[in-house]
Each structure stands twice: as structure tokens, then as C-alpha cells.
Amino acid sequence: MATEPAAPAAEETASAPPAATAEASAAPAATSTGGQSSLQKKKKKAGVPPRRGKKLRNQLKNQQQRLSKEGTVPIKKALATLKLMKRAKFDETVEIHMKLGVDTKQADQAVRGSVPLPHGLGKAVRIVVFCQGDDVAKAKAAGAEFAGGTDLIQKIQGENWLDFDVALAAQGMMGQVSRLGKVLGPRGLMPTPKAGTVIAANGDIAAVIKEFKAGKVEYRADAGGCVHAGVGKLSFDEEKLVENISVFVEQVRNSKPVGVRGNYIESIFVSATMSPGIRVTV
Predict the structure, then answer these.
(1) What are phi and psi of 194, to 5 degrees?
(2) Could you write out the DSSP letters of every residue in 20-80?
(3) Which CATH class is domain 124-214?
(4) Model confidence pLDDT, tens digit, residues 143-172
């Protein structure tokens, strides 16, 4: 009879481990859930840059105050200031930003073109040329990274291939290249005669390629009537940057549409990749 009461105790003992195991397994699950929620809270929103440190915020604030006091300055002084403000470890691009007094809603006031800079852009330019026949070999011999006809068009359409900086097209190929308008147009890569990226039937393909390789830059007024372009590297000598900027501004000035009345060039700013803009007179 002493053995009968022992059976329930054995059952209780046997049933205890599953309960303990369930409690133990519940704890990690709660910890895991809490960890996920904390990670979600820490996750940064897309397009929101990380918070700047106090030292950097004060540095930028002092720079803005100094620039606002100086106002509009000569181009040489502005470039010297950009070099002094350099804080990035890479060779920054010097940019020009021009506000034009044009109404971009009017078709006759569009401003677009290209200009070869005397001292180049300071970077390698990858060029694709849409051509056929003997022009393919000429294009590659002149330095184009890619040259071809239907095969390149199909590659862009099928694979969304865009590993190039400039797209040139022979005039005879524009009927086929026009199919790429929705892909190349939004990226500013669509060949067009106004930008000098469509080569005439009797044009010299090699000469056009060498111009873009040497530093020919395209420009186009955006919806706000502003023109933005790179004009060299911050490591360039000031004289070279001044000459590049002067040539660019003069080309945009000569592109003034006939229908524009009043002040055509309203303001000009120069900046580096990681610096504030400085208003200049050219």
C-alpha cells in the first residue's frame, strides 16, 4: 500500500519539466520581441542624414556667418575661401550654380548646351557611342569605352545598363536611340543636337569623343531656371579654376534666348562638394 501514494508524486515530478521549459522558452521570446522593437526604433528613416556633431555644427555656423558678412566676392577670393574651408578627405568637385531670369515654361526660353572647359573636369569620363559600321572601330580607337548599335540599345532596355557618363549618337542612329528616351532622358543622358551629343552625318566622331574626354560639360536650365555644373576639382590651381568658370559663364551668357527681357543672369554661386555656396562676380 505504501507504493500507491508514490505514483502521483512521480507524475507531478514528471509533469514539472514541461512547465518550466515553457516558461524558460517564453522569456527568450519576449526578449527577442523587445529587441526587435528596440531595433525598429533605432532604425533611421530613409533620406534623413545622421545628426551632426556639435563641433561640426559650430564650424558650419561660423562659416555661414562669415560668408553672409562678406556678401558677393570676386571669383579668386571665393576659390581661396573654398580651399580654406576644405574638410573632406577626398578631392572635392568645384561646382557652379547660376540663377537665370528665364521662364522655363516658355519653349523659346530653354537654355541648354555644352562647352569644352580649357582645363577639363579632373575626372575620367566613360563614353558610349551609338553608331554602326566603320564608325564603331573609329569610336573605340578615339577612346570611347563602348560603341555599337542595336546590341547596346537592347542592353539598356533589357538590363537597365547605365555604366557610362556621356552618351553620343550618330545622326543616322537617332531613330533607334529615340526609344531610350524614357530611360536616358530623366538622367540627362539622352543625345540631343543642342548639347552637341548628336554627331552629324559628315561629322568627325573621333574629334567629338576627344572633346568630351578632355572635359566638355553639358548644361541645362532646370524647372526653376537654374544651371548647375561641375567645373573642376578643388586641387586645381586657382588660375585654372578661374579660367574654367569664366569660359562656362561666358557660354551660358551667349546662350541667352531671344525672348528673355530684363536681367538674364541674376546670381552666380560657387561651392565645393562639402561646402556652402559663395556668391561671386564674374
Answers:
(1) -65, -35
(2) HHHHHHHHHHHHHHHHHHHHHHHPPPTTPPPPPPHHHHHHHHHHHHHHHHH-SEEHHHHHH
(3) alpha beta
(4) 999 999 999 999 999 888 998 989 999 999
**Helix pair 134-141, 205-214: axis angle to 10 deg:** 30
Q: From CA 227, how far away is CA 241, in angstroms rounded?
A: 18
Q: 215 and 73 in contact (C-beta within 8 Å)?
A: no
In angstroms and rounded to an integer, the radius of gyration of the C-alpha atoms of the chain is 31
CA 84 vs CA 79, 80, 234, 236, 281: distances in Å = 9, 6, 10, 14, 19
Query: Which grid coordinates are listed for 96?
Result: 557652379
Q: At 173, list the grid cell.
A: 542612329
Local structure of 199: helix, strand or coil: strand
pTM: 0.68
Listing DSSP states for 104-161 in one string gives: TTSGGG--EEEEE-TT--SS---EEEE--THHHHHHHHTT-SEEESHHHHHHHHHH--
- Residue 98: φ, ψ to 5°: -120, 130
Q: What distance in Å separates the CA atoms of residue 237 and residue 148, rounded to the nearest whole number?
A: 38
CA–CA distance, 198 with 90 (Å, rounded to integer):
34
pLDDT per position as a tens digit, 232-274: 999 999 999 999 999 999 999 999 998 888 899 999 999 999 8
Closest CA to 212 of 220, 204, 202: 204
Q: Look-up: residue for cell 560603341?
A: 147
The fold adopted by the segment(s) 71-122+215-282 is Ribulose 1,5 Bisphosphate Carboxylase/Oxygenase (3.30.190)
Domain locations in the chain?
71-122+215-282, 124-214
Q: Which three cell numbers stand for residue 122?
A: 579632373
